[in-house]
Amino acid sequence: MPLAKRIIPCLDVDRGRVVKGTRFVNLRDAGDPVEVAARYDAEGADELTFLDITASSDNRDTIVHVVEAVAEQVFIPLTVGGGIRMLGDITRMLNAGADKVAINTTAVNNPDFIREASGHFGNQCIVVAIDAKEVDPGPDGMKRWEIFTHGGRTPTGIDAIDWASRMEQYGAGELLVTSMDRDGTRNGFDLDLMRCITDRTGIPVIASGGVGSLEHLVDGVRTGGADAVLAASIFHYGEFTVLEAKQHMAQNDIEVRL
Amino acid sequence: MGLHRVVIVDLGTGNLRSVSKAVSAVSPKSEVSVSADPAAISGADRLILPGQGAIGTWLNQFRQGPELEEAVMRGLRDKPVLGICLGLQALYRHSSESGGQPGFDLLAGRVRHFSEAESDFGGVRAQSGGKIPHMGWNRVRHCKEHPLWQDIPDGERFYFVHSYYVHSEDPEQVAGETEYGIRFTSAAMRNNLFAVQFHPEKSQYAGLTLIKNFINWNGDC
CB A219: neighbour CB atoms within 10 A? Predict the structure, then answer.
């Protein structure tokens, strides 16, 4: 298969700064988004994802300016998530230079929004972000996960695997699946979760949450079946470069763009 | 080379700002505009025709007024043109997208959904486990020499995102091919036209090199 598996550094942006938390809390500053984006681009990142975690609506325009500034000098695909509620929000992000938007809470509140957005802009730019947490097994004894919204604060009672499949039917072009149990822990992806979703859907899946080593990236593709792997902290603090990550994947016979 | 006037034809879809920034990055002296104004399109010395999303919506924009359609069709005949994504697909006779759409019929072939390939070729999914859309960095094999391939290695990776693909009927018009379960036309050429399925504006150095080659191209093969 000549199509390369993608490595996507993720930048959580709060009021115009890159931050990284553990299990959705304890934020640490990790730099200026434009500088960080330019560095990842130079290292060979295949795409970049920006998640706007700014709480107050006063600072909502900040992310638009960040995307504009990044798109002036970085010529790889950019995805922006956080605070997408209306078609107009998508237009604004695409006009700023984003190629895709990631939608989570709004999809749960109003699943038809995904159908509408995909019909209007094309499914290639609609990524549905799924934050999933393991819950008690079902009556059949199989593992179960539920989805959460509002940056992982609000439980919904919706089964994550069913939701993934439903979002594909509604016109999502890609799924960004984050394990909330693993996010920020550096213990590796929730591979069972990833495999369940990649087995049940026919659109690209990005694995997210828990990367602490280069081996975890390999596992996400090989065991989890992911088409792309997303990571933040291993790149932010200079532990590994994106190039090192790709070389490691290539050594493990995974097709990457070098 | 003197000052180039490059118009990016604005049919309301796709990341037009990124196309414009990419042209400015490789050719700071070019005058670049994003426009649907027939006069600006007629006055350009080269056109970029980008497009993403549903081809039906895109073609409706194109056909909203006879002046716009006329200006673009004239450009397709006599200016160097770079088509991107829908700007490739629209050059063919027919697309099965949006319930079936007639195209400009300038190149020989038709546009199909990857799932339709199953009946003809044994299937994208069946052969490769491929997802739809075809999304990510894939290799482009050069089938013909062309000035736009200058300094781009044969087999270089470019960024793709699409669910429909071109099935060419004239090998002379195939500049490049890509494999994704099936082999499809990822770059097409004919006289003053060069069109690609991938997104050069999102394909980093390789993509910028192709855009630079286009800016310096006189329109001859």
Answer: 20
User: pLDDT confidence of B84, banded at 50, 70, 90?
Assistant: very high
| Residues in CB range of A125: below 8 A, 6 or more apart | A90, A94, A99, A100, A101, A173, B52, B53
Q: How far is CA A202 from the centre of its chain?
A: 17
pLDDT higher than 60, residue A198: yes
Q: Name the strand (E) or helix (H) holding A42.
A: helix A33-43
ipTM of the complex: 0.93
Are B136 and A124 inside 8 Å of each other by CB?
no
- Chain A residue nearest residue B53, CA to CA: A122
How many Å is the Cα radius of gyration of chain A? 17
- Beta strands per DSSP E along chain B: 5-9, 31-35, 46-51, 81-85, 94-95, 101-102, 109-113, 134-139, 141-142, 157-162, 164-168, 174-180, 182-190, 193-196
- Chain A residues 148-207 within an 8 A CB cutoff of chain B: 173-174, 202-204
Q: What is the pTM of this model?
A: 0.94
A1 or B210, which is more confident? B210
Tokens of B56: 């039906």
Distance, in Å, from the CA atom of A230 to the CA atom of B133, rounded to the nearest integer, reads 19
* Predicted confidence (pLDDT) per residue in B53-78, tens digit: 888 888 888 888 899 999 999 999 99
pLDDT for B119 equals 52
Which of B135, B156, B184 would you mutate first to test chain A, the one with the most A CBs within 10 A? Answer: B135
Query: Distance (Å) from the C-alpha of residue B132 to the closest C-alpha of chain A?
Result: 5
Cross-chain residue pair B17–A97, CB shorter than 8 Å = yes
CA distance A44 to chain B (A): 9
Active-site residues of A, by number, are: 12, 131
Tell which A residues from 73 to 102 touch B, by Cβ distance under 8 Å. Answer: 73, 75-77, 94-99
Instruction: State yes or no: pLDDT of B129 exceeds 90.
Output: no
Pairwise CA distance, residues A61 & A15, whole Å: 9
Do residues A194 and A220 touch, judged by C-beta distance below 8 A? yes
What does the pLDDT read at residue B131?
Answer: 92
d(CA B178, CA B8): 26
Say whether pLDDT at A214 is over 70: yes
A76/chain B closest Cα distance in angstroms: 4
Q: Angle CA(A101)–CA(A104)–CA(A107) in degrees, nearest 5?
A: 100
Cis amide prior to B133 (ω within 30 degrees): yes
Report the distance separating Cα A125 and Cα A123, nearest Å: 5
Q: Which residues of A touch B210 (CB under 8 A)?
A: none
